[in-house]
Amino acid sequence: MLKINQMELGPVQTNCYIISNSQKECLIFDPGEESKKIIDFLKKKELEPIAILLTHAHFDHIGAIDDLREAYPIPVYLHRLEKDWLGKPNLNGSGKYGMLPDYRMKDADVLLDQEKMLEISTFKMDVLYTPGHSPGSVTYSFGEEGFAIVGDTLFRGSIGRTDLIDGSEKKLLQSIQDSLLTLPEHMILYPGHGPETTPEREKMSNPFLNRF
Question: Going from the N-terminus, what domains does the chain have, and what CATH number goes with each?
Fold first, then answer.
């Protein structure tokens, strides 16, 4: 059984998820900022990170990846459609806000380009393509474990914004309908911001999804 730890990081409190197995290996999802806080946690729990997985490449989800790669020789996974975003502030959004530094990260090591079963050590997950918030947004679904990491596609009672580069409300709503609301009703959905939810809860109460 996998263990999930959540950390709220950076200026907009992005959820970073650290998922570990019984061998003390772990995956890091969306390390948005505060690399020291992440590294201190890994050391305290005696966890060995083996990969960083990004739901998408907006600045608030990528800020700690280079520091983590300096501390640990681990690969970064990202959808191919956003392969240039890590190093370009005008794409990852950091150049949009004057109070932020420009985020220029090194390229991802593994580019995802299709929906597939992804295996990393003992971790098994389905990669679901869920564009709309950004062109390369993906969801990592751990069906056997009953949870999914959905990034900024869907929130409790809300949906991801679509006014950033290459965002699309039509694609976002289609992604939610086709890929997230079709997951088991009680599956736990862990979003990029805020508390977790379930497909059942969002079908019943999300005002943006009442058409479904």
Answer: 3-209 (3.60.15.10)
